[in-house]
Amino acid sequence: MMRTTDELLAAHMCARDQVTLASDTTTGAKAVTARSLSRRQVLGGFGALTAAALLTACTQSQPPAPGAGGTPATGGAPAVNPSVTPAKLGNVTNGIDEVQVWQEEFYKDLHRHPDLWGEERRTAGKVTAKLQEIGADEVLQIGGGVVGIFRNGDGRRVLFRADMDALPVTEATNLDYASQEPGKMHACGHDTHVAAGLAAAALLARNKSEWAGTYLALFQPGEETGKGAQAMVDDGLVTKLAANKPDVCLAQHVLNVPASGQVATRSGAVLSAGDSLKVTVFGKGTHGALPHLGVDPAVLASSIVMRLQGIVAREIAPSDFGVVTVGAMKVGTAPNVISDQAELLLNVRAYDLAVRDKLLKGIDRIVRAECQASGSPKEPTIETIASFPLTINDAQVTDAVTKAFTQAFGGARVQQLAPIPASEDFSVIPTAFGVPYTFWGHGAFLPGAPTVANHNPTFAPAIQPTLRTGTEAAIAATLAYVGKS
To answer: Are 295 and 376 in contact (CB under 8 A)?
Structure first.
């Protein structure tokens, strides 16, 4: 499936393509709700930032403040099991060394052959075959994605999501398993997500005496465009899983912080809502030497760019977080020709839906006002080319998963994740089911090793302990709900 230029541009709106920096200062234990995240809280405590900094930070995990975590967008959290000890985790991960052999080869194969959104047929086929091989009771093809159902008697039902798509990036890692597909790369680590998701399912399938309930291993297409989760929902995900409706949904993402071998959680708003817009404004073409006979869209577009900067600076309260970025401006083709139109590509971020709405309305107002002031002969067009929902981790689910991690791994391996102005479509799935969820991160690089951000052409996670940590984290979080007491 061929993708338009707009879709390729939108594929990069997931802000993990930016540089991720560890905080230079402690963010503290105070949990932050979706409506109280400020620019100071997001930006404060960082060292020198590059122009593309992703502002991700981790601090030692601490319990959330009473009442923290925001209001979940979905139903109440189910009760949890009392503990997930290292011994219990060890029982369920019995055989992990054996599984790790094929897991690493599976991961390398995916890395060599990355699939973009709409092209995940090879990846989906391999995932399907492996799910059948490791003993899934049922494997469903839904909206370009795959769901493996593992039933183990009565009990709660846990859905664990792993995304499958790659990015339109030319790899520069020099790995012996580097991408063999020109212009395509697993630069965001989704190949590690798939490998960890499959290994976790395999170990749960082979150690059923240690848990009871149903495990749903969901492999999602198209996260980078924000379209994949909705594609699965539109293809009947909720209806097709009606008999196995999850009680809770879980997901994780490999990041450049914390260090490989560690996990990081956060209650409340963890990923921003994001929108990419294409704004087209119209002028009147003329000779470059006769500007008085036309309406110059370059001047019009430039005025819009400057006025847009005032939305966050002067219309959004300092206690709130918002971003309006003009990522591209296209106008004209020759130095002596005044064009008849200009195009702006905008990116909008917010941790609060009311703030997001205010940003979008402000953009619309300014664009139309500047067009009128310039005497534009035609109304502008404002098109949404990509949209990501706000990700708000349920407080109870996050607390249960954090406790499970702390009990299973020890406190030194569990960090607190700062809010990230990146965006994800994972929450579309639990929202469709009406159930709570949590989304956490785990590290990609060894302690002390040089790091680069997701979406970088040299992004190359250390295979171990990254894959093992992702596998164990998926299992530990699942055991918080289906493990036997």
So the answer is: yes
Rounded distance, CA 286 to CA 478, Å? 65
Q: What is the DSSP string of 415-429?
A: EEEPPBS---STTHH
Q: Cα dihedral angle (283, 287, 290, 292), rounded to 10 degrees?
A: -10
Structural domains for the chain:
5-272+390-482 (3.40.630.10), 276-388 (3.30.70.360)
SS3 384: strand
| For the chain, the helix, strand and coil percentages under 3-state DSSP, each to the nearest 5 | 35, 25, 40
> With the C-alpha atoms ordered 235, 143, 11, 434, is the resulting torsion angle positive or negative?
positive
Residues 6+ apart with CB under 8 A from 140: 146, 147, 149, 240, 241
How would you write the pLDDT of the chain (485 residues) with one tens digit per residue? 434 444 443 444 444 443 333 333 333 333 333 333 444 343 333 332 223 333 333 444 433 332 333 334 456 777 776 678 888 899 999 999 999 999 999 999 999 999 999 999 999 999 999 999 999 999 999 999 999 999 999 999 999 999 999 999 999 999 999 999 999 999 999 999 999 999 999 999 999 999 999 999 999 999 999 999 999 999 999 999 999 999 999 999 999 999 999 999 999 999 999 999 999 999 999 999 999 999 999 999 999 999 999 999 999 999 999 999 999 999 999 999 999 999 999 999 999 999 999 999 999 999 999 999 999 999 999 999 999 999 999 999 999 999 999 999 999 999 999 998 889 999 999 999 999 999 999 999 999 999 999 999 999 999 999 999 999 999 999 999 999 87
For residues 167 and 190, what is the distance between their CA atoms, to the nearest angstrom? 10
8 A C-beta contact, residue 278 and residue 301: no
Q: Give the integer Cα–Cα distance in Å for 70 and 55.
A: 21
Q: Determine the Cα–Cα distance for residues 436 and 67; give it in Å rounded to an integer.
A: 16
Q: Tell me if 285 sits within 8 A of 436, measured CB to CB.
A: no
Question: How many Å from the N-terminal Cα to the C-terminal Cα in the chain?
Answer: 48
- Adjacent-strand bridge partners of 219: 146, 162
Tokens standing for residue 261? 């071998």
Exposure string for 38-48, b = 16+ CB within 10 A, e = fewer: bbebbeebbee
How far is CA 55 from its chain centroid?
A: 14
Question: Does residue 196 contact residue 146 with C-beta atoms inside 8 Å?
Answer: no
Let me know: does 417 contact 440? Beta carbons within 8 Å.
yes
Tally Cβ neighbours within 10 Å of residue 69: 25
Phi and psi (nearest 5°) for 394? -65, 135
One-letter identity of residue 97? D
Closest CA to 438 of 472, 408, 388, 397: 397
Residue 73 DSSP one-character state:
S
